[in-house]
Amino acid sequence: xxxxxxxxxxxxxxxxxxxxxxxxxxxxxxxxxxxxxxxxxxxxxxxxxxxxxxxxxxxxxxxxxxxxxxxxxxxxxxxxxxxxxxxxxxxxxxxxxxxxxxxxxxxxxxxxxxxxxxxxxxxxxxxxxxxxxxxxxxxxxxxxxxxxxxxxxxxxxxxxxxxxxxxxxxxxxxxxxxxxxxxxxxxxxxxxxxxxxxxxxxxxxxxxxxxxxxxxxxxxxxxxxxxxxxxxxxxxxxxxxxxxxxxxxxxxxxxxxxxxxxxxxxxxxxxxxxxxxxxxxxxxxxxxxxxxxxxxxxxxxxxxxxxxxxxxxxxxxxxxxxxxxxxxxxxxxxxxxxxxxxxxxxxxxxxxxxxxxxxxxxxxxxxxxxxxxxxxxxxxxxxxxxxxxxxxxxxxxxxxxxxxxxxxxxxxxxxxxxxxxxxxxxxxxxxx
Length: 432
Known about the structure:
Layout: H1 3-26, H2 40-46, E1 50-56, H3 63-69, H4 74-85, E2 98-104, E3 110-118, E4 121-128, E5 131-138, E6 141-151, H5 156-162, H6 170-184, E7 200-209, E8 215-227, E9 230-238, E10 244-247, E11 268-270, E12 273-278, E13 283-287, E14 290-293, E15 299-301, E16 306-313, E17 319-324, E18 329-339, E19 348-349, E20 354-358, E21 368-375, E22 378-380, H7 398-412, E23 425-426
Antiparallel strand pairs: 1-2, 2-3, 3-4, 4-5, 6-7, 6-23, 7-8, 8-9, 9-10, 11-14, 12-13, 14-21, 15-20, 16-17, 16-19, 17-18, 18-20, 18-21, 21-22
Helix pairs in contact: 3-4, 5-6
């Protein structure tokens, strides 16, 4: 087609096309005359486009003050706060929380808002007539694994904070330390006394990665720890029946009848001995226990299942709890500030249950827990009790356990091999 024909065609379209579009938009017909505008046009303008405006909760500011800045009507602000309280206590929102308003493009009226509750949850609230309705949306995550390696110079916490894992926040590393001490090796290693400078570790742990690249820690998957020239290994295994636990390299349970320490806050000031100078009595006498220095009010946990045989005042012990366990063993917890609710003689307690709180009652120079372990009434060193273990991996699951252990070892060593945990979408946002 020549250029002259192209120009003519465009001119005809400009004249007749615009006329046709105008008639259609105004409800006209080809026979002349104009009909009333169709219902589509006012309906579209009754629901105009929205714009999003963000604001941030400032330090020392309440959510009510933040909503007031948005020019919300007082009744709407109260309704929004009531809806929020169904999902989260507004007082638990931290400075820096971001709120996104969805406003009408025409009159600026707030139609809805999105409030970041935390890194994994967003509360979305929208207007339903004169009321508000909300729902919590969880950030989808992908599961993968990472390895932390390092050596101890002073403490497990310090070692993990100094370990070679770029991008792992300090809080996440501290949580890994807590899991190692209180869940994985709670029965094998007393992290307040057993560690030595130069002890080395490899930790395989699960990460839940968000779309923006940030991540939170999931569970500890496997650990290899060399403590004072002794090797400790832990491998997680989930049996086909759904049960999950940690086992050593041979499939033996890491669980024991007694925890190595009665405190989660682990710092020891005095160890078991047959002769110690008493700072109050000013004389040397046997010290049949271990003293754990800790802040006033630190929770104390029962080291094993048992029955409380006494809970009350006991001379130099101050506030004392004594628990009877299996096979003639018993434990004592002294100088306590107070007892947990429901703890009295005859109460059954479970391993790890909080029974009381660190204090400085009786013959005590400062806040600490005096802990004793006895066998048929005779004080013994609690470090000597390591032989009462939990159930091993059942024989019918041994092949599956060995395969899982091999994959975890390969991941710890950085060797090529099958993927340990298949990356799968997880919209729950839940963690351990």
